Amino acid sequence: xxxxxxxxxxxxxxxxxxxxxxxxxxxxxxxxxxxxxxxxxxxxxxxxxxxxxxxxxxxxxxxxxxxxxxxxxxxxxxxxxxxxxxxxxxxxxxxxxxxxxxxxxxxxxxxxxxxxxxxxxxxxxxxxxxxxxxxxxxxxxxxxxxxxxxxxxxxxxxxxxxxxxxxxxxxxxxxxxxxxxxxxxxxxxxxxxxxxxxxxxxxxxxxxxxxxxxxxxxxxxxxxxxxxxxxxxxxxxxxxxxxxxxxxxxxxxxxxxxxxxxxxxxxxxxxxxxxxxxxxxxxxxxxxxxxxxxxxxxxxxxxxxxxxxxxxxxxxxxxxxxxxxxxxxxxxxxxxxxxxxxxxxxxxxxxxxxxxxxxxxxxxxxxxxxxxxxxxxxxxxxxxxxxxxxxxxxxxxxxxxxxxxxxxxxxxxxxxxxxxxxxx
Length: 424
Known about the structure:
The structure is a single chain. By secondary structure, the protein is of the alpha+beta class. Among the domains are: about 5-85, 2-Layer Sandwich (Double Stranded RNA Binding Domain); about 100-195. Helices cover about 50% and strands about 10% of the residues. The chain has a 4-stranded antiparallel sheet, with helices on one face. Strands 5-6-7 form a 3-stranded antiparallel sheet, with no helix packed on it. α10 (about 260-270) packs antiparallel against α13 and α10 packs across α15 (about 370-380). The longest helix is centred in the middle third of the chain and has 31 residues, at about 210-240.
């Protein structure tokens, strides 16, 4: 006859090389089908054997005592006799988990977005940030009540931002429906309505004023000087200790990638990703041209079934000078114009360095992408026609360029003065 299973039996069960089971037997209080599984890690878990190959987890020992495990096992056994299908319930739970916003966002939708949506990084980031409170919720259960909470959480952002976030979320949900992952969703008719508080909202293009650009350039120069001085001090320290010296940085060389990439953005209007992936094969210093397939435009052409063609962008004198110097400093092991100093591959982030320069220049509410706005605004304010601006900005649709028709008040006043003469 088997020894009686007691609390001491569970307590003293030692781990072995492989998991093993101890059945609840030998005592009048024992429950047929209850067992304690002991794992090599020392973890112990109660299970109830409903049928052959069908076990239901009761709980972990010692959180669940023997007495509590027996009571729960009896309940599970009674429910099973009444026809409750525990396996079907687990399958349904797994299915619901697979259909949560987070799982779909990081899985199928991310794969779809990377292949078909040019601004997929911004889109995925905006969904995760804006709808963090429903990431663990099944997509077809996201309701207008959840949207009310989202609206309160995002009350401090503009109505344009909220509308964009909702558009992104609906695109994901619609993709899940078209992929037959969920039968439907509850936000088809949901809209972001403006309020009196939103009435004065307007879309603005942030670009550098001449004074800000001057401060930015000064901050870049000062940063370069400090990096070069730091290299000199570091080598002096290493020389005293007979350690290998770092390569010297001559006065004409760039100390790192921050200054050239910022000035190239200001002179070319290229997006950050296109600057990160700019290779020497794209640069023709002799013809003063950059020939590159632009990432965002290529998505639109690919979706339209059109052949991908590189944009041909002329270089300004400053851009040519910057790239000429970068060529002199070229890393022979890398094809990239501004390679990562660690991997030699493309850069992935310059946020820390760029924000430090902005702080030194006392420039606020400014992103790296706003350098592109500054490039376009300079062209418009210099009198360049809007279609030429579109071509230089590599916009597929001129509607995207019309936003840069926004000019500073002083420039508008100067235009009126040129057209109609000065005042009295």
